[in-house]
Specification:
The complex is a heterodimer. By secondary structure, chain A is α+β, with helices and mostly antiparallel strands. Chain A contains 20 helices and 28 strands. In chain A, the strands form 8 sheets. In chain A, strands 1, 16, 17, 18, 19, 22, 23 and 24 form an 8-stranded mixed β-sheet that branches. In chain A, α9 packs antiparallel against α13. Chain A is globular, with a radius of gyration of 24 Å. By secondary structure, chain B is mainly alpha-helical. In chain B, a hairpin with a 4-residue loop joins β1 and β2. Classes of the chains: A alpha+beta, B mainly alpha. At the A-B interface, α4, α7 and α15 of A face α2, α3, α7 and α11 of B.
Chain lengths: 641, 317
């Protein structure tokens, strides 16, 4: 159902969202969950909604954009799925188990590696020149290679040899349900799973999968063996939920062409089939009348026996409308049943109306401000902490977001609470002081910084954000005003706000020279259930010039701590240990303060009164599929009209 | 210069103009930060540098700008306008799909402008300096001054959200369906209002000027009814300038479609252009810009020709 429920990365929020993986959760992030009595369910009807962008492709491995993912999740299933809290459940798989974990690292694969050359593009980017999917690079490869140098790599061709010799980090085994049929009537087997994972090779998604996947193979018709490169506490979530396609697709349709615009129909095992697609206008899905799922198949299902074995709406009609206000107008005009992604003031208006229901859930992300940590005077951590104390998080939450978003007292959103902490509330209480608005403390820290380094006040700085998010622009203006205030007669910072169109801003952030421009960048990050993404995305040198380490942040101790929290036999086998290590990481992050955090996001679906049972998934990517049907939470939506 | 030579010269001028438009557009697109691969990277954060480099190589984005432009130009001369990177579709296919929607909207806006402007302009000229003239002048100035997007939003607010007579979302019927006339009304009014206002003012001043001429006085002196004087003699002569201006206004209707289509979610070329700019789809931006450029140039050419045909006294130097 949630085909990408496991991907362990984060993306820049503002135009996209992406769920990711990690352990699991136990606290339902859905605020005010509504439940449905199966006896009240009315079958049939068309659920109408709208998304903000045209799907770039229906071929899953070629895009993980939020809008495309919303559509993909109606069509495809994976071996595992998640509920709204991020707990994992076997889905196409009847069951799965972690067979074993071994203390293996990249260096242990050297014997299986081959040699390939580095090449250089005209703009000077050096890359490993091979047509094969690279699985692991040798740790001995040069740090700053030149064209013509040689790289040692393990490709998909040799990965199986390593596994055969017993060299792998983790081994998971999935037992598939028998008798599951694809949309075209073919029965799903383990070979379909293996071939579908092969479709990821050299795709846009490959970087997100092959940072963990070593190899996958079939053992008979219904058993899948999946191997991870290292002991990786996030491996099963990262790798277990990828969609499975029939032979018609894996054997006949080239990567990127499983798309009606290429003359091909997307096929999976999902609860809906693609009925009609008008490019840049609308998509219509029809209920899969032969959907394979049965609640009685699942030991974990403890809901009522009357709970349906699939969605109850006949059709899903999704318009493609880029304008938020137009989507809100269409909801008001009765042309659609649900919309999302509205500004706080619009949400409040809908909340106050008796004709609509707002369905909020803790979101999968936060806003953050990133310091130019390599440019003086921002190299001084005390100065960065001084700014942190001048961010009025509670005021931002209360006044700009009207309470829809909550202050980010810690760098971990609540949906990652159970995997990223031992006791979230206690952790927030303990670490909150780092992020309290305290001008006097800010002044002390600034003076401390000035005594350490030669800093003249006011420090002139430009604070940048994207212009096409009204709430965000207002947030930045408020932060700038707060930073520029005089404290005891001294103005410590003189802030100029600069706003740019989203893609222009992101393009600049992703360039490799943004870090030395000395600007503060304010943007949002969309992650998922995995705590690792929230720490790694904004700090890891591996993510420099990607999402979301724009300022070339590289704190060696933090890098090592992040690695120790995710990789290793100990954390792979001991959840409690992993939680403790992440708690240390959050404190380390606040102490180093390379990023300051604004608010934790809230995702709100707004529905009219004809929609019954709707609850919002924490990530945009499954806001439709989850609401319509997810038995892990006994979640179902029906239409009363 | 004969009309034939004039037309030939103008047609030949089209090519350097389009060349200039394409060079400027190409340069502007490249000055703006970001390219389609940046969009892919932003949406797929763990994409490897190697894959990013490969993607740029596949679409020629690593080549020097002059090389990229030449490749594009050679393609255009061979009838290949490039591809949309995100969806891997031919630009010509996208334009062909969207063009009928924009043409329908443009025709509706143009007809609306003429239907509104001509009778109102006549009325204002006949009632010169009376209350009706003042009201029409106020309306015309308002129509010219109000931005397209604001008028469109107000029409949606009133027509769709208050009166609930129109949908907010774009219709899904084929263009030839009768109900499309209803769906075209609000965006058509939006796109045609400024043109209607301009035309009305031209109509009014042209009529007023004609009505002061001696032949009108003579006609009245001969005892012709005022209705005959106005509609048979004055109107015919006034329409020369109105017709040429109406042809010129076609250009503003074409360019106005970019904003109006976005406001109404109308699936035409204008909306595709905005989407292409957002996604840095260089070939699509160039293709649509070129197409709009051709439309505007042709509209101006038609206006010039009409001017000469309607008034044989006019000769081109």
């Amino acid at each position: 159902m949630q085909a990408v429920g496991g991907l362990g990365v984060a993306s820049i929020a503002g135009c996209s969202g992406l769920s990711n993986g990690g352990g699991g959760g136990s606290v339902d992030p859905v605020q005010d969950r509504v439940t449905v009595d199966p006896a009240d369910i009315q079958e049939g009807g068309t659920f109408r909604t709208a998304i903000g962008a045209n799907p770039d492709t229906f071929d899953f491995p070629e895009s993980s954009s939020a809008t495309a993912s919303i559509l993909h999740n109606l069509l495809f299933d994976g071996m595992i799925t998640t509920n709204a809290a991020g707990e994992l459940f076997p889905w196409l798989a009847e069951s799965y188990e972690q067979v074993d974990v071994q203390d293996v690292s990249a260096g242990d694969y050297t014997d299986y590696m081959t040699t390939v050359p580095y090449a250089e593009t005209e703009d000077g980017t050096v890359y490993i020149d091979t047509e094969k999917q690279i699985v692991i690079e040798s740790p001995d490869n040069p740090d700053s290679p030149s064209a013509g140098d040689e790289a040692q790599v393990l490709t998909v061709d040799e990965a199986g040899d390593a596994v055969a010799d017993g060299t792998y980090g983790m081994h998971y085994q999935f037992e598939l349900h028998e008798g599951v049929e694809f949309h075209d009537g073919e029965e799903m087997t383990a070979d379909n799973v293996v071939a579908s994972y092969g479709r990821i090779e050299n795709s846009t998604l490959s970087g997100q999968v092959f940072d963990s996947l070593l190899s996958i193979s079939a053992d008979g018709d219904y058993t899948v063996d999946l191997y991870a490169q290292e002991p990786d506490a996030s491996a099963v979530r990262e790798l277990g939920g990828l969609p499975v396609y029939p032979s018609e697709i894996t054997e006949n349709v080239p990567l990127g062409e499983m798309d009606p615009r290429q003359g091909n129909t997307p096929l999976g095992t999902g609860m809906f089939t693609l009925d009609e697609f008008q490019n840049e206008e609308y998509v219509i899905f029809a209920k899969n009348e032969n959907y394979w799922f049965d609640t009685e198949m699942k030991d974990w299902f403890d809901g009522p026996s009357e709970f349906p074995n699939g969605p109850v709406v006949d059709e899903v009609d999704i318009s493609i409308i880029s304008s938020d206000s137009q989507r809100a107008g269409a909801l008001q005009n009765g042309e659609i049943d649900m919309t999302f992604g509205l500004t706080a003031s619009t949400l409040t208006n809908y909340q106050q109306s008796e004709d609509y229901r707002t369905a909020p859930t803790d979101g999968a992300g936060y806003t953050f401000m990133q310091y130019p940590v390599r440019v003086e005077p921002w190299t001084n951590a005390s100065l960065r902490r001084a700014v942190n104390k001048l961010i009025p998080r509670q005021s931002i939450s209360d006044n700009i977001f009207q309470g829809w978003e909550s202050p980010a007292w810690v760098p971990l959103p609540p949906i990652g609470a159970s995997t990223g902490s031992t006791d979230y509330e206690a952790m927030v209480e303990e670490l909150r002081s780092y992020n309290e608005y305290e001008p006097e403390a800010a002044a002390e820290l600034a003076e401390e910084a000035a005594s350490e380094d030669d800093i003249e006040f006011p420090v002139e700085v430009t604070l940048e954000t994207n212009s096409d998010n009204d709430d965000r622009v207002r947030t930045v203006e408020l932060i700038a005003e707060s930073m520029s205030q005089e404290i005891n007669g001294t103005q410590y910072f003189d802030v100029t706000v600069n706003t740019k169109e989203f893609l222009t801003f992101v393009s600049q952030l992703l360039s490799e020279d943004y870090w030395d421009q000395g600007k503060l960048a304010f943007i949002g990050l969309s992650g998922g259930f995995n705590p690792h993404g929230y720490a790694k995305s904004v700090h890891s040198p591996e993510n420099f010039a990607q999402c979301c380490n724009f300022q070339n942040i590289d704190f060696p101790d933090l890098n090592e701590a992040m690695r120790q929290a995710r990789y290793g036999v100990d954390v792979a086998e001991d959840t409690q240990l992993r939680q403790e290590r992440y708690e240390d990481i959050w404190e380390m992050i606040l102490e180093l303060n390379g990023n300051s955090y604004g608010t934790h996001s809230t995702l709100v679906g707004v529905v009219n009164n004809e929609v019954k049972g709707f609850n919002t998934y924490p990530s945009t990517q499954d806001i439709v599929g989850y609401a319509l049907y997810n038995p892990t939470d006994e979640q179902i939506t029906y239409l009363d009209r | 210069m004969s009309l034939r030579r004039f037309i030939a010269k103008r047609v030949l001028l089209i090519f350097p103009i389009l060349f200039g438009v394409s060079v400027i557009t190409f340069a502007l697109v490249h000055i703006t930060p970001g390219d389609p691969v940046d969009v892919v990277v932003a949406l797929n954060p763990d994409i490897s540098p190697a894959e990013e480099a490969r993607l740029r190589g596949r679409y020629g984005l690593n080549d020097p700008i002059w090389r990229q432009y030449l490749d594009w130009l050679v393609g255009v001369l061979q009838g290949d306008f490039g591809r949309v990177i995100a969806t891997d579709r031919a630009v010509s296919t996208v334009i062909a799909e969207r063009l009928p929607e924009t043409v329908a909207l443009g025709i509706f806006g143009w007809v609306f402008a003429v239907v509104i402007a001509v009778p109102t302009g006549i009325y204002a000229a006949v009632r010169k300096d009376e209350l009706g003239d003042h009201v029409s002048r106020f309306l015309a100035l308002s129509g010219i001054s109000i931005p397209n997007f604001w008028l469109g939003l107000m029409l949606i607010l009133v027509g769709a959200l208050t009166l609930n007579l129109w949908p907010v979302l774009a219709p899904r019927s084929p263009l030839y369906a009768p109900e499309m006339l209803w769906y075209l009304l609000l965006p058509g009014i939006t796109i045609g209002t400024a043109s209607a206002s301009t035309l009305m003012r031209i109509m009014r001043s042209s009529m007023a000027e004609e009505m002061n001429k001696e032949y009108v006085t003579a006609a009245r002196a001969k005892g012709l009814p005022e209705r005959t004087v106005v509609l048979k003699h004055v109107l015919r002569n006034s329409l020369i300038s109105v017709t040429t201006v109406a042809a010129f206004l076609t250009a503003s209707i074409v360019s106005g479609s970019v904003v109006v289509e976005q406001v109404f979610g109308w699936p035409g070329l204008g909306r595709a252009l905005i989407s292409a700019v957002s996604n840095r789809e260089i070939d699509l931006i160039l293709g649509i810009t070129l197409f709009i450029g051709v439309a505007i140039i042709l509209a101006n050419l038609v206006a010039d020709i009409l001017y000469a045909v309607l008034d044989p006294r006019i000769r081109y130097d």
